[in-house]
Amino acid sequence: MQLTITTNYAIRIIMCLAETKRVTPAGEISEKTKIAKKSLLATANKLKKANLIVGHKGVSGGYSLSRVPERITLLEIMQVTEGKGKISQCLESPGNCPLPIPNCPLRSFFNEVQQDLDDRFSGMTIGNLLKEQTQNDQVATRPE
């Protein structure tokens, strides 16, 4: 299982906006995140539609977060870029199971793993990631 590059871009865009704490032009986001502007704009459009970021028009235009970083989870971002994001098609709906047997042990296992993943991703916010990044930066620059 691997997340798409769009998910990676979406997280990087939101992290950048959380760090700048202001309306940030697309060109600046592109430069800071190393995401090609065309890909950045396509991903930002998805994030805007999901109300995770806000687009600002005009000379001072760009993007900003729609809410504080502590209120944006990785699960929300992934739902925008990955869709439902279930690890197996049988979890999408019971009719999708290739082996529709009662009390299927594999479906039960997949369901547990899916719940664990959802809990982990919903428990991690952009705010948490920023704190971790700040702590890591402080450790890296500390003199020995």
What is CATH's topology name? Arc Repressor Mutant, subunit A
Helix and strand content put the structural class at mainly alpha
Question: Unreliable stretches, pLDDT < 50, 5 or more residues?
Answer: none
Strand content: 5-15%
- Record field, number of beta strands: 2
Elements, N to C (H/E): HHHEEHHHH
Biggest sheet features: 2 strands, antiparallel
Q: Share of helix among residues?
A: 55-70%
CATH superfamily: Winged helix-like DNA-binding domain superfamily/Winged helix DNA-binding domain
User: In what order do the strands lie side by side in the largest sheet?
Assistant: 1-2
Radius of gyration: 18 Å
Task: State the distance separating the first and last CA atoms.
Answer: 39 Å
With helices defined by DSSP (H or I, 4 residues minimum), what is the helix count?
7
Arithmetic mean pLDDT:
90
**What best-fitting shape do the alpha-carbon axes yield?**
globular
- Top-tier CATH class: Mainly Alpha
Number of domains as seen in the coordinates: 1
- Specify the CATH architecture: Orthogonal Bundle
